[in-house]
Amino acid sequence: MAVPKRKMTKARRDARRANWKLTAPNLVECPQCHEMKMPHRVCPSCGYYDGKEVVKTED
Q: Which whole-number Å values give the CA distances from 55 to 24, 30, 40, 43, 51, in the listed order?
């Protein structure tokens, strides 16, 4: 069984975990309703994608 020979310092442990941070999702403006949406997805507010209505939404 693998057992560490020496105690890992807090600095070394925390440096390894420094790259765990989350990034905010990229958002683009919908060309139809000008709401912010995720790219390459149907707009949740108007239901349009690539200039065509693909999901009916209730206004």
A: 26, 14, 15, 9, 12
DSSP letter assigned to residue 41: S
Residues 6+ apart with CB under 8 A from 58: none
| DSSP assignment of 17-33 | GGGG---PPP-EE-TTT
- The first and second tokens of residue 31, run together, are 């060309």
pLDDT at 6: 96
Stated length of the chain: 59
Burial of 10 from C-beta contacts in 10 A (0-12 / 13-18 / 19+): exposed
pTM: 0.59
| Block residue for tokens 């999901």 | 55
